[in-house]
Amino acid sequence: MTAQGQDTEARELAAGWVTELHTARLSGGHPREKIAKALNVKVETVASWEYRRRIPTLINLAGFGRELGLRLVVVGRDGRVRPGRTAVKPDEPWSHREIRRLGAALRGERQARTIAQEAVAAATGVSKWSVVQFESGHIHPRPAVLAAWAAALDCHVRWKTMV
């Protein structure tokens, strides 16, 4: 597959996550206004995500899920959820911790499969520096990059009900 094809596929996966949230919001009877208020964005912004005109940042995606009782998880090729253990940082927003958890899960999967950071970078179209920063939680990838990163490790990122 070409790099452009991989990028398109990753963007579709990320857009699919929003579509799942939209469906969950409607089936749960959650007003769009409630989501917008919780995320401190305009109602029109949430609508633009739900109608695939824009993809939210990973922080907003995680927050949207949280409002519906969902969280993103990394699922390995064996179908099991990969743990992403990270230290709790004082005063860190929940969404930032969630993104660090995803990065830790993908880092663990990469290390278990002995895949080099350079290989992940090449497969996702980002620099090795970016992969290092994503894995350490210092920067947050775009949702499409997260999807490509998981795909490069033969994993999937899915919504799961929070317990």
The helix-and-strand class reads mainly alpha
Residue stretches low in confidence (pLDDT < 50, at least 5 long) are: none
Number of helical regions? 8
Gyration radius, rounded: 15 Å
What general outline do the C-alpha atoms trace? Answer: globular
User: Which percent range fits the helix content?
Assistant: 55-70%
- The tally of strands reads 3
Secondary-structure arrangement, i.e. CATH architecture of the largest domain: Orthogonal Bundle
For the sheet with most strands, the description reads: 3 strands, antiparallel
CATH superfamily of the largest domain: lambda repressor-like DNA-binding domains
Number of domains: 2
CATH-derived topology of the largest domain: 434 Repressor (Amino-terminal Domain)
Taking strands numbered 1, 2, ... along the chain, how are they ordered across the largest sheet? 2-1-3
Q: pLDDT average, as an integer? A: 92
Fraction in beta strands: 5-15%
CATH class of the largest domain: Mainly Alpha
Q: What pattern of helices and strands is seen along the backbone?
A: HHHHEEHHHHE
Distance between the termini: 38 Å
